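>> Question from a student workshop board

For tomorrow's exercise we were told to take the sequence and the ligand below, predict the bound structure, and bring the output to class. My setup keeps failing. Could a helper post the expected result so I can at least see what it should look like? The ligand is S-adenosyl-L-homocysteine.
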Amino acid sequence: MADAAKPGKVWLIGAGPGAADLLTLRAARLLEQADIVFYDALVNAETIALAVRAKTVAVGKRCGRLSAAQRFINKRLIDAAREHDTVVRLKGGDPMMFGRAQEEIDALVAAGIDCEVVPGVTAALAASAQVGVSLTRRALARSVTFATPSVGLDEAPSDWAASVLAADTAILYMASRDAGAIATALIARGKPAGMPVAVVRNASLPDSEVLFTTLAGLCAGLGGDGRPAVLCLGEVYREALQRACAVGLQGQHSGDLLWPQAANGRC
Ligand code: SAH
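>> Workshop helper replied:
Here is what the output should look like for this input. Compare the format with yours to find the bug.
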């Protein structure tokens, strides 16, 4: 049994993009053994339910992203490790992608607590699987960027657009609310207005949606509905966009394939 003199171990675990069966076997085994689990807002209830003997604690903070809240989570992890052998910090997707894992690792190391990361399927990869288009389609794309235009209240602004301009394919996280401004900024910086875009909401989940447009079409913005989404940009999506437009122009849509009004008729 852990105590302050001999603390337990904290596992930072990636829960994957949503579907519970995209969890790694290692993550599932650790969840079964866990004494306490701190989980984020985007983690599926089915995944949390694998922690059969653990106390489960919600520590989600979608939006806001206040450093005070992060410091409080760090402290809770340290306190938990001084009481329990197996502490799990369960994060959506992969902990090392836009997941504030570093703050937690640094705080745990500073407190002398052992910690280890278990990777998960990040949203960009689940979205690519959903769309069925390779991020590095041969002859079209040899570089990929995962970026976010979103900056926390306590962070300096970043030149996120530079990394999007430099890559053949770009996946933008935390970007759907400001999609209009993002598309406008990218066109102003030299991305072609006709660059194909796929928007993937709730990748891997039964209510996921894929919407195809162009950067010009995206300038009108996207109605957010609370489901997390990634914006996928690049020539690799052109064929899929053309197929979606062909269906759209006939006034039909099939399955989870949607298209925005802005793109209709001019793709
Ligand atoms: N660590 C996570 C990312 C956390 S940031 C990961 O590796 O995936 C939260 C952002 O991730 C959301 O705003 C959205 O852009 C994206 N996201 C998370 N789950 C998603 C999903 N199922 N489908 C589409 N985007 C998702």
